[in-house]
Amino acid sequence: RAAQKVRRARGSDMPSFETSGFASPWSPGYPRRRLAAQHGWALLTMVLAALLVSVSATTAFVSMRLERERERQQELLATGRSLVLALRSYHKAEWATQPEWPRDLSELVEDRRSPIIQRHLRRIPVDPITGKSDWGLLREGDRIIGVHSPSTAKTLIRRGFHPEFTGFEQALTVNEWRFVAALAQPTRP
Prior knowledge:
By secondary structure, this protein is mostly helical. The chain contains three helices and three strands, in the order H-H-H-E-E-E. The chain has helices spanning 2-10, 32-91, 106-109; strands at residues 136-140, 143-148, 179-180. It has a three-stranded antiparallel sheet with strand order 1-2-3, covered by helices on one side.
């Protein structure tokens, strides 16, 4: 009744905020049970929001890590190809009396078989997967005919290899990618 008197005094038949059934939690007559129930929902909402943000961040982190690993494997393919070309350059050098493969990768940096030092590589490249220059060597006797990465990381790249790298599609780990410079001998019919 008091609210009706207030409305009549103001000249409005519109119910006020206090009497409309939508009480503010800061008003003096607001029930404490209702306030506690709302705080529970707010806490649940905050926990769910934090969970959603953490799942999204984890997914983004894993995606970025896989993309970086894929880039490193692309670098490994390019580096392996450059080592193959350097090994072939060493093998086919004009000044060599007989074609031979190097005994050590450092011979690709300083080829001392002629009076003038030849360089097939500026430096021994770093394996992009391991971050070191310790390549697995493929040998024929005491001569190097190819290289491979010593890493056992799983391959993320399954297709799109250079045509001379046959069998790379079936490899499960990157150390199964064998960068072999020895060319197959031509067969005669």
